[in-house]
Amino acid sequence: MYGKPALGTVLPLAGLTAAPEVLPGIPFARGLQEAAGAGFLLYCAIAVILLSAKMYYVLRNPGDPS
Amino acid sequence: MITEVLLWASIAIIVMAACYNSTLFVLSRRRMRHARGPRAERLYVFLLACLNEEKVLAESLARITSLPAGNFLALVIDDASDDRTAEIARQAAAAHDGRVRLLQRQLPNARKGKGAALNAGIRHLRESGILDGHDPADVIVCVVDADGRLDPHVVQAVDPYFDDPRTGATQIGVRMYNRHKGLLARLQDMEFVIYGDIFQSARRYFGSVGMGGNGQFMRLSALDTLCGPDGSGPWSDSLTEDLDLGVRLIARGWTNHHCTTAAVSQQAVLDVRRLVRQRSRWFQGHLQSAGLVPLILREVPTRAAVDLLYHLSSPVLILLTSLLPLSFLVAVGGTLLGSLEAGRLLISPMWVIGPYVLSFTAAYAYGWVYHRRERGLGLVRAVLLSHVFVFYGYIWFAAGWWGLWRMLTGKQTWLKTART
């Protein structure tokens, strides 16, 4: 998909000289990032299942292109 | 502990995408040898599915009929247009006897989507006898959008790919002919050049080259293998019927190619709102393509399958990634407010280096690739432009959430992108 170049953004919480909790909005920002991380872990789990299914087809039909 | 894991997982999205993009960039720079078979005289059939295309059709047909190729014809499939589309096609047919033909579809059978129109075109080619005496293996069908302007040498560039009997389809590059009309048009041109010259070129090594719907050349015998036993045509009714068809060709054992030496130029969208709507339609179609996953697992060779699965899952990654710039904006805003209250800057100025490297490193590669296609632009300007291009990519975030909303609410109909 053409949106691949958009996949690049930043980690905002590094480099702070104050405790993040005292700054307005930081807990919300952290929550958004955690949501993205949780979604990605789910994505990885589904990817592992799909790749396992692919391996199953490859092993079951060794002569086939799959 | 869980918080830490989730934060690192969010960073892993960026790392994974960066690794994938870097790998494809390196692969795209390598030359690839093509297998060759016996040369053959081929018939090229250009299919133009048209719904109210009076503003652009005449120019596209003029381009096609002036191609320096021997054996070709254009079939205009008028999908019950309200405007002068059919009349323009008739005039072109009269002026170029035998080179241009018209198929007029009528309501209620018309306006069922681009795939249905193209299927009707293939059916018409067979029933009208146009293809009599031609071996389907030597008939090349090309889908061109009504606003598509093919490079004059396109047939000469594409034809050698079909010398290999395993070649099912070849996609050419896509450019914007109105790219000089403002920044938005220029960025769309850059987007298609980068997609073709990096991603599509590299995917030749995986065997997972995709089809793009415009400038898409396919062997008729390959399309025949996609027809259903019920007489259904090769195209599906998906919103991204091109993506769908490309994957199904690979699953049938055909090889898809990407040709970098010829292109079709189309009209860029000049309005942000219409652009987001167009991309939402593509995004929704991409989500629909999740239905191809079982076919990919069963039928597609492993390397191509892994890449296609990643490709088909990119809408999910886009939605997840969209949370990160939002998080960044909130955090930066909060930090600035906190700095104002504290009377001192709470982050080191050097901190900006990290976000810059993570966000804009790719811009240098993209700028260089675009500069090679657009020499008049200059390398420095191309690199600066590609910095803007990174932000332009965020259009996909809005388009993605809109497309997801439409899918969840069961909305399937879309207005086509209007020409100007």
From TrEMBL, chain A:
Q: Which domain of life is it from?
A: Bacteria
Q: State the UniProt keywords alphabetically.
A: Membrane, Transmembrane, Transmembrane helix
Q: Which residues cross the membrane?
A: 40-59
This chain's protein is named: Uncharacterized protein
Q: Which organism is it from?
A: Streptomyces mashuensis
Automatic annotation (TrEMBL), chain B:
Q: Which residues cross the membrane?
A: 6-27, 316-338, 350-370, 382-404
A GO molecular function annotation here is:
glycosyltransferase activity
According to the UniProt entry, the coiled-coil residues are: none
GO-annotated cellular components: membrane
Q: List locations, semicolon-separated.
A: Membrane
Domain of life according to the entry: Bacteria
Provide the alphabetized UniProt keywords.
Glycosyltransferase, Membrane, Transferase, Transmembrane, Transmembrane helix
Q: Which PANTHER family match?
A: CELLULOSE SYNTHASE CATALYTIC SUBUNIT A [UDP-FORMING] (PTHR43867:SF2)
Record protein name field? N-acetyl-glucosamine transferase
